[in-house]
Design goal:
single chain, 10-stranded antiparallel beta sheet, 4-stranded antiparallel beta sheet, mainly beta, Neuraminidase
Length: about 300
């Protein structure tokens, strides 16, 4: 197996060289520098972070078409293998127990990082497509309509979403559900019985450590956040290059993302240099440009 890791530490948080900041992303007018976690093999499915230990979980397939479900410790800078499971697509973490729920072609597995053991958990006759843990497991099934919950190994459907093909979803701090279906973003507000239109722009969805809802637009590399006062999206900033398609926040609320352009997994940390984001092009060719004030 071939893989390359770039070692980084907390010193990266304040790196400034020759009066200029590394500015690979610009969020809230602050420069972020990227460090490489993984390359050489495409990553598939969800990223998930154990925020207690600051470990990111992911899956990749090597050149022999062998599957690997693995993790990387962001604090101790070490590569970890998850035992007794190879292929997986969906991943989520119970932050209270640190249990990692891993979904694939044969249902859901549970990985205990304390004992380093993986066991079958349930739904062995289902192919799990996407998951999020928020007091219980929320999940979707491959090529099957609807969103389901799994609690105490009992599965239930969410009636309001039974007719939707759901590609991506999140549950935010208000327990509202945002989801992608047929190239459209919808919102199911807590307690309501019908989902409503939210956006016709294609986003990937994620939440931060406070369960604030974030939206990433691959084409213009923009990062957006729900303004909970207005209920609308606010632009936070942009990635400087590439095509960020999967994004998670670690326990410092820093961004980890997979770049579809170069098949690499990156970790962003603030340099505290100042920056700005401008738009280039028009219409469908609109892109975000990140520029440091030090440049």
């Amino acid at each position: 197996m071939k893989y390359h890791l770039i070692v980084f530490g907390l010193s990266a948080l304040t790196t400034l060289i020759s009066g200029k900041s590394h500015c690979h992303a610009c969020f809230d007018s602050i420069c972020y520098s990227k460090a490489l976690i993984f390359q050489n093999h495409p990553i598939s499915g969800q990223l998930a972070v154990d925020r207690v230990a600051n470990i990111v979980h992911f899956h990749y397939e090597d050149t022999r078409t062998a599957d690997h479900t693995v993790a990387f410790d962001l604090d101790d800078i070490r590569f970890l293998y998850i035992p007794d499971i190879q292929f997986s697509f969906a991943r989520t973490v119970d932050q209270a127990t640190r249990d990692v729920y891993i979904g694939g072609a044969n249902g859901i597995y549970k990985y205990n990082p304390i004992t380093n053991e993986t066991s079958r958990y349930g739904l062995s006759d289902k192919t799990i497509w996407h998951m999020q843990f928020k007091d219980k497991i929320y999940y979707t099934i491959f090529k099957t309509k609807g969103l389901y919950t799994l609690e105490k190994k009992q599965s239930k459907t969410i009636p309001a979403l039974k007719d939707f093909n759901i590609d991506d979803f999140i549950i935010d701090k208000k327990d509202d559900i945002y989801f992608m279906s047929n190239f459209t973003v919808y919102k199911l507000k807590k307690g309501e019985s019908k989902a409503t239109f939210f956006s016709s722009i294609i986003y990937s969805l994620t939440t931060d450590i406070q369960d604030n809802a974030y939206f990433v637009q691959r084409e213009n590399r923009g990062l957006y956040k729900i303004n909970y006062r207005t209920g609308r999206l606010t632009e936070i900033g942009a990635f400087g290059s590439g095509a960020p398609i999967r994004t998670v926040f670690d326990n410092y609320n820093n961004v980890i993302y997979y770049d579809a352009d170069d098949d690499k997994l990156y970790y962003l940390t603030p340099t505290y240099g100042r920056c700005k984001v401008t738009n280039e092009g028009k219409g469908k060719t609109l892109r975000k440009k990140v520029a440091s004030f030090f440049d």
